[in-house]
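Translate sequence into structure tokens.
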Amino acid sequence: MTQINKARRRVLTTSGSVLGLASISAISGLTPAAKVLAATQTDAGSGPSLPDYASWKDPDSLIIHSANTMETKRSAFGSGIITPLERLFVRNNISPPSEDIIKVPDAWEIEIAGVKDP
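Result follows.
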């Protein structure tokens, strides 16, 4: 009599189910990455476009992950001491501040809390 390895069968069944669901969601565009890519596509569909706050930057010098996540390509730094401003972008993973916040920088305040001697 042949012995059935139930644990092996369970692993194979679970793996197959996960792969099937992943391929269905990728095909239908339900993955978070697919949504981000669709939201940042240009009208021509040639690739992600720069958000308004960085529209003056050189798009060929940047890796555009989403509207809030970009970074400078290593090749864009060049070999000089100074990287041109239109090519430099310090990676940012959060949304930029609204126009209301950056309009009056003299009104900004900072609070340091949670330490004994700030």
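Note: The first helix runs from residue 6 to 28.
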